[in-house]
Every structure is written in C-alpha cells, then in structure tokens.
Amino acid sequence: MEKKEAFKASINGGYDCKGDAIILGAAMLDGEPLADAPVKVPLRTMNRHGLIAGATGTGKTKTLQVLSEQLSERGVPVLLMDVKGDLSGIAMPGEEKPFITDRHSKIGLPYSPKGCPVELMTISKQDGVRLRATVSEFGPVLLSRILDLNDTQEGVLAIIFKYCDDKQMPLLDLKDLKKVIQFVTAEGKEEIEKDYGKISPATTGIILRKAMELEQQDADLFFGEISFDIRDLMKRDRNGNGYVNIIRLTDIQDKPKLFSTFMLCLLAEVYSVMPERGDLDKPELAIFIDEAHLIFNQASKALLDEIETIVKLVRSKGVGVYFVTQNPMDVPDDILAQLGLKIQHALRAFTAIDRKAIKLTAENFPVSEFYKTDEVLTSLGIGEALVTVLSEKGIPTPLAATMMRAPASRMDILSQSEIDSENRSSDLVRKYGETIDRESAFEILTGKINQIQKQAADETAQKEWEKQREKEWSQGRSSGRSNSGRSGNVLKSPVVKVLTSATFIRGVLGIMKQVMK
User: Fold this and answer.
1) 3 state DSSP class of 211
2) Pair 396, 322 in one domain
3) pTM for the full predicted model
4) If DSSP states are collapsed to H, E and C, what string results for 270-316?
5) Considering the domain boundaries, does residue 471 fall inside one?
6) What is the domain range of residue 513?
7) How would residue 501 be classed by pLDDT, with cut points 50, 70 and 90?
8) Predicted pLDDT at 453
C-alpha cells in the first residue's frame, strides 16, 4: 500500500498542470491502471516535439490519433503524414465497443465518440488537396541538400539560379531546371562563361543526373504550381476545432527521396512563413510524421543536418514535430535530444540485436524506482506505453507505464465514397486542383535555342551559297580562258570577235540583247 501511495504521489506531483492539458490515460503499477493517477501532457509544452515508438501492432497509430483529436478539440491544427493509409477514419466518430467501455472504466475517463474536421491532401496521384512547391521556392541551398551536391556542384547550381533570376526566367518545375542545365552546358555556354565564370560540363552532368533521379521518384508531381500556402494548414471550423490535415502517402513508401524532399520543404516553409511566437499556451501547429525512418534511412548527412537545424528552430514558431516509428534508433541522436515527449509502446526481443536496442532505449528514459524499464518495455500490452513528458516548468516528468485512452474517432479508414464526399466539400481541393504551366525557363529557353539553331542554319546556308557562287565564277573564268587559247585564228575576224564577246557577256551578266542592239 505504501508503494502504491508513493507511486500515485509521484505521478500526480510530476504530471500536475495549472493550464490546459491532454490526458493520455492512467498510470499503471504492477500492470494495474490507477484511475486517480492520470498521465497528462501540458498543452503549452506541445511545441517541444516528441516521439511515438513501438513494435508493429502495439498501438502507435491509435496514440497518434488520440493526440491529434485532443489537439484539434483545443483549436490546434494538425498535420498528419499517413504513410500506411490508416488515419483517414479520424474524420468520422468512433463506435463504443465493450473493450473500449472496459478500458475507459479502468482509467476513469468517459468515452464520447467524435470525428474531427479533416482535409485530405496528396503529393502524388491520389485524390485530395494537391501540395506543390516551385523549384525557385526551394532555392539553390535547399535543393543542393536534397540532391546531395558537393561544394563545387552547389556553387554551379547557385550560378544557374542567379542566371535565371537575372534573365527573369522562372524555375517552376523539374523540366525548367533540366532545360537550364542543358542550356548552360551547350548553347548558352559562352554567355554563362562571359558573365558568371566557367562551368564544367562534368559538374552540370552530375547535377542533371541527380535531378533526373529525383524525377524518377515522381517528384515532378510535387514541383510546380499552384504552390501550396502553409497558412492554409491553420484552418479551424465554425466550432473552433483545428483541422486535421491528412497527407495520404500510401503510394510513396518506395520513394524515400521524394518523402524526405517533401518533408524538408514543408519544415523549411513553415519556419520561413510563420512568425516568431515564443512560449504560447498552446502550439500553433502540430506535425506528426508517421514511419519517420523513411526520412532518415536514405538521407545524406547534409540533409540530416538541415532537418535537425529546422527542428531545433521551428519550436520558437509555435510548431511541434512528432516522429512516429518502430524503433527509437530510427531517429538520429541529435534529433532525439531535442524531444520533450516520449511515448514508447512495447518492443519485442527476438534477437540479440533487439535486446541490445531495448537496453539502449531504456537508458533514454528517466530512472524510476517503480519500474525496471527494460523489462517493462517487453511486457507492455496493446494500447499501453511508457510515457515521459516535459512539465510546465520544462522538467522531465516521472516515468509512467500508461494504459492509453481509446480514440474517439473511427479506428478504421474511410470508404472511397466518404473520401469523395470529403473532397467535394473542400474549398482547398478546388483552390489547388488546377495545374498551371505558365511560361517559364523551359519555354523561354526552348524558344531561345530554336532561334540560335535557326540563326546557325541560316549562316551555314549563306556560307554554302557563297561558296557555290565562288565555285561557279571560277569555273566560268576558267572556261573563257580555255576558249581563247584554242580558237586564236578564228577570233581574228571582227565579226567573230563581236559574237564571242557577246557570248561571254551573256554568260556573265545576262545582257545579250543590249549588246546585239
């Protein structure tokens, strides 16, 4: 009994909040949930970033859903990366079933089915609000990180952007970028070298190949117009609930380059557009990145550094970023060090590598006198997790094995008819549904190249004509001299002399009639 009371005092003291808070569930001791020991996340600390981790089937997605619902209900817009395609059901109310009723009675929380206002978005060929950005908006530095260019190649790319700016040629999509690279390597080489310095064809060839590699992952669907305005993520409905913006990514699981490109662009745009806000009572936006390993697995060191930098800085904009993945080791240590909220579902120890990973994970949590953390990690049930958050004072709370509450929204996907209905009612689908391909670098340079080629063809034709005329003239003079030599006696006659002269003049000047007159 003393242990139980000490445990409750530790939880209630550590998770006490003066302001608004999200209740995740109830703390557990020896596998028993204690309804009078609620586990809370202070709303004002939700811009300190977080991690939701655990093996497949342990409840990560449902935890993500609970956090999104609670934030939306408090007027905080949410952005979800739906890689597996199982988050769209958040738009519809859930259904109270016996296991949900039993769970909520144990943790002392009421269950009230409720859906959230939702926007379905896409960066691929799926239906929904189209998310796009132009190449110009990326800029040479960010694009260099994505393409994994070295310093020399990055300098050449900067020259290309500068050239396009000076010549007022918009870089909107990948075909614009490829056309400019081809132009500065061939037809425009002299022009570029005169004004901007020498560019190696080998360097531009590497940049072009890397751009084509990105294009092969369907990045051409993402680059272009109309560019998405980040401020459209901040919508609220008439009741003040924040919209849950779900980006459907089920068809890019095998395209990590496109996924990391999009995420870096999104975070950079959020950081550049949103004003400095400092510490707020609640975040301006919460971003949940499901299957976060897709960002990091094939990302270059430069790209990881860029993501880390933005994650560090975006907190001051009132934005919280939450990574959802199977193993915490999927997220780089430098980023893990920035996280305030950690929700760790069960891990499975099937191999020696698994056991080593579990020990490392356990060491990242606060030491608890009530748990052997590495043992708890392998014994948690579905919908249970180890939780630690930052208190309102910025101090990590005591570790709590928690029985999580169930989502109030549907724990299943939307049907196709429901997806169609959501899209038909969306103002953003109509706003971003049109693809605009206005005159840009591709069209301007295509016209310029055609003009250069036509001019070159005309000059070649003129030279050929002049060469032919010169040849005909030479042949005519040679023929005249030959006739004089052979017919010396005949030309002594005055009449013959006149006729021969006339024939020569006709052959050269074409004025025989005047001579005869």
Assistant:
1) helix
2) yes
3) 0.81
4) HHHHCCCCCCCCCCCEEEEECCCHHHHCCCCHHHHHHHHHHHHHHHH
5) no
6) 487-517
7) very low
8) 74
CATH code, 358 = 3.40.50.300
The answer to whether the beta carbons of residues 410 and 90 sit under 8 Å apart is yes
In a domain, 213, yes or no: no
Kindly state whether residues 419 and 507 are assigned to the same domain. Answer: no
Total number of residues shown for the chain: 517
Q: Do 356 and 499 have their domain in common?
A: no
Distance CA 32, CA 8 (A): 12
| 87: pLDDT strictly greater than 80 | yes
492: pLDDT strictly greater than 80: no
Q: What is the pLDDT of residues 386-423, one digit of tens each?
A: 999 999 888 899 999 999 999 999 999 999 999 999 99
The owner of tokens 């994970």 is 361
Within-domain flag for 194: no
The domain tally of the chain equals 2
Among residues 23, 93, 12, the alpha carbon closest in space to that of 63 is found at: 23
Which segment of 13-17, 126-130, 512-516 scores lowest on mean pLDDT?
A: 512-516
The tokens of 415 are what?
A: 């049907």
Does 51 reside within a domain? Answer: yes
Q: Do residue 376 and residue 505 come from a single domain?
A: no
